[in-house]
Amino acid sequence: MTYRINYLCLITFLITCSFVSCKDVLIPKPDALLSLEYPKAQYETVQNDCSFSFEKNNWASLEQKPSCGFEIHYPAMKATVFINYKPIDNNLTALLKDAQKLTYEHFIKADEITSQPFVNDQDKVYGMFYSVSGDAATNAQFYATDSVKNFMVASLYFYAKPNYDSILPAAEYIKKDMYRLMESIHWKNK
Description:
By secondary structure, this protein is α+β, with helices and mostly antiparallel strands.
């Protein structure tokens, strides 16, 4: 009989605890979309002492590095486009291989790499623009050359762990800026 009373007390206690302790009120979350608005891009020509000029978005800040390298910073997006310049000295094939190797090193984490050739016969600018989809360290890269004297490589990096879904709007905005940069390259020493 004592066991039966203890058993009934235990069951009563457990039922009481379940009613008292579990009072989560479920509230459905409203439907919403992430709204990221960036300013409409306005471009200016970057004049420098290097053997090329290009256009950049006014919203981004520019920092010149040694050997005609540049960093275009997007602080609100926590991103930077790194631009490296190399003069061609009978090493075009090696420079092209290095640029392509840099892109395809991200293939392990990338879902897809799309390449788009670029040809501007009027200004003698030839290159390749790469869009990288997935959680890779970079989402866009390009190289540009006149095939004789000048070679340039640019890469986009974010200051965050790669999460493609989270950075997609910013990556798409900056890719457009990078493509504009590539389109606007003008070699000064043709």
